[in-house]
Amino acid sequence: MLGFRFAHFDSMLHVIVYKNGTIKRQGRGLSFYYFAPTTSIVAVPVGSSGLPFIFSETTKDYQSITIQGQVSYRIGNPVLLADMLDFTVNYNGQWKSNAKEKLEQTIINEAQTSASAFVHELGLKEAIRAAKQVEDMILSGLKSSQALEMLGVAVLSVNVLAIKATPEMARALEAEMREKLQQDADQAVFERRNFAVEQERIIKESELNTEIAVEEKKKQIAEKQMEAKVQQAENDRQLREMKVKADIAIENQQSENNRKLQEMKVEANIKLHEMKAEADIQLREKNAEADIAIETQRQSLIEKKTENDRKEAETKGFALEATLKPYRDFDWRVLMALFGGKDPRLHVALGFRLLAENAEKIGTLNITPDLLETLIADQREKGQ
Fold first, then answer.
1. Cβ(95)–Cβ(155) under 8 Å?
2. In the 8-state DSSP scheme, what is residue 191?
3. Within its chain, how far is the Cα of 290 from the centroid?
4. Longest dimension (CA), the chain
5. Domains of the chain, CATH where assigned
C-alpha cells in the first residue's frame, strides 16, 4: 500500500536495513515496516552450516585421488560479509543473488588449496591412509585463510570422510594386496609346518629325555630303597639291643623298687602298730579319765538334785502349812459356804446334807417339785 511493506525475519538471520545508502537498523530476528522504494534489506545467515565437499588431487606418484568430507562454519561478522557479498533480499524475503553459493565455493577452494600442497608430497598409499593429516591441514589452512577472514567466516570443524583412488588403481591395489596376503598366507603355512616339525622334534627329544630321566630316577629310587633297607636293618638291630638293655634295666629297677617297697611296707607296718598301740593306750587312759570325771560329775549332780528336791519339798510344805493355818479352826460348813461361789445347787446340796444329819429332829419335810425342776433345768442348760 503506497510502497509500505512489512518484513519479518527469524532469529538465525542478521538483518541490515539500508535507507538511502545509510544503515538505519540491524540485528537478528527483526520485524518492521519499511518503505520499499527507498529501502534495501540485507539478510545474512549467522547459524552454523555444514558444507560437503569433494575434489580430486594428484599424489607424488602422479595418481589421482578423491577427497570427500564436510566443513562446518558460521558467519562471525555478518556486517563485514554484507560489504563483500550481496545478500540483499526482495520483498518476499528471498535473496536476489547467489551470494551463499559463491561463499561456499570460496570455502571449498580454500580447503582444496590447503590440502593440495600436503597431498602432492605423499604417495598413493600414504595419501589413502592420511585422512586425519589431510583433515588437520584443511582445518589449519581454513583458519589461517585471509580470504575467509576478510569475509568474516569462522570455520568450526573439518571432517574428511574418505580418500579414494580411481577404480582402476583401487583394483590394482586390491590385487597387489591380495597377492601379498596370499604370499603372507603361504609363508604362514610354511612357518606353521616348520613349527609343527620343530615341535614334533622337540616333543620326541622331550620324550627321550623323559625316558632317560625316568630310568635314572628309577635307578636312584632302587639305590635309595637299598640304602633304606640297610639302614632299617641297622635301626632294627640297634632297636633290639636298646630294647634288651631297657628290659634288663627295667627288671633291675623293678627288683630294686620291689625290695625298697617291701622294706618301706615293713617299716610302715611297724610304725603303724606302734602308733596304734600308743593310740590305744592313750585312748583307754583318756576314756578312763573321762569315765571317772563323768561319774564324779554325775555324783555331784545327784547330790545337788537331792538337796534341791529336799529344799523344794520343805519349801512347799512350809508354804502349804502357812496357807492352811488360818483355816484350821474353821467349820467345814463355813468353808463350803465361803468357797462354794454363787452356785445355788451347791447351797441346796449343802442344805440337804444338813437335813440328813438332823433327820431325827425333823418331823415332816415337804420338798416341792418346782425346786427339783429348777435344779434339773439348770443342769440341762449346762449340758447343752
1. no
2. H
3. 82
4. 200
5. 4-165 (3.30.479.30)
Claim: this prediction has a pTM higher than 0.70: no
Rounded to whole angstroms, the Cα distance separating 53 from 105 reads: 9
**Per-residue cell: 220:** 636312584
Encode the chain (384 residues) as per-residue pLDDT tens digits: 567 888 888 888 888 888 877 888 888 888 888 787 888 888 888 888 888 988 888 888 888 888 889 999 988 888 888 888 888 888 777 888 888 888 888 888 888 888 888 888 888 888 888 888 888 888 888 888 888 888 888 888 999 888 888 878 767 766 666 677 777 777 888 888 888 888 888 898 888 888 898 888 888 898 888 888 888 888 888 888 888 888 888 888 888 888 888 888 888 888 888 888 888 888 888 888 888 888 888 888 888 888 888 888 888 878 777 776 766 666 666 666 665 555 666 667 777 777 777 767 776 767 776 666 766 665 555 554
- Kindly report the number of other CB atoms within 10 A of residue 263's CB atom: 10
Residue in the block written with cell 570455520: 155
What is the C-alpha to C-alpha distance for residues 4 and 93, in angstroms, rounded to an integer?
A: 15
CA-wise closest residue to 247 among 259, 239, 235:
239
Residue type (1 letter), 335: L
What would the grid cell of residue 166 be? 580411481
Dist CA 380 CA 384 (whole Å): 6
User: What is the C-alpha end-to-end distance of the chain, expressed in Å?
Assistant: 151
* Rounded-to-integer distance, Cα 345 and Cα 351, Å: 10
Q: Is-contact 73 49, C-beta < 8 A?
A: yes
